[in-house]
Please model this.
Amino acid sequence: MSQPAPGIRPVIELRGVRKTYGKGEATVHALAGVDLIVPTGDYVAIMGASGSGKSTLLNIVGCLDPATEGEYFLDGVNVAEQRPKQLARVRNHKIGFVFQSFNLIPRFNALSNVELPMSYAGLRKGERRRRALSALATVGLADRVKHLPTELSGGQQQRVAIARALVTEPALLLADEPTGNLDSKSTAEVLAILDNLNAAGRTIVIITHERDVAEHARRVLHMVDGKIVHEEHNNSARHAVGVAR
Model:
């Protein structure tokens, strides 16, 4: 398990995390004691077959599901000590989510979709607009701000979703199979954006079953039966310079 440099607080720190579903003979040990440290600025890919525990791990890291045992600190916050409203604020401010299915609101244009999480964060309209326009420019969609999701390609929709994940300036960008519904060209565009975000200092954790996608990360963790069984360090991780438009 990688250790953070002295003086650098990890964004993610899991200590002996277990997750159990069911009781008696129906008990399922989805996570069987996971220790994980992700320092600020790291880029980690998590791989594993169906049932390996990677989705359960993502749900716990994303504060969507509590651990049965163990401790989880997110950017220094002990998640288990947070009340529901506090935990909702932690999710909104500290985690940016990117999903395989984009999860955009069909009746909202790109700008309104990106502004949405800031409404929950209580930011004023002018600040929401400024941040949303900046995030859309970052992902190469400054000329698509008024387009509805149905007027955008799959790759463009995912780029809107990435922009939406960035506007609250989260400590962690958490991506669940972000290229799973994309063609090869759109996949390359999305991965170039993630590469650039990480090169600029953004901490990223990505769940993927695609080796080519995982190779963009600095570390690749392999899960089997609820455990991290192997870790690879990718010293040649690619970091793109341009964003396709």
Remarks:
- Confidence is low (pLDDT under 50) at residues 240-245.
- The chain has one domain: 40-59+82-233.
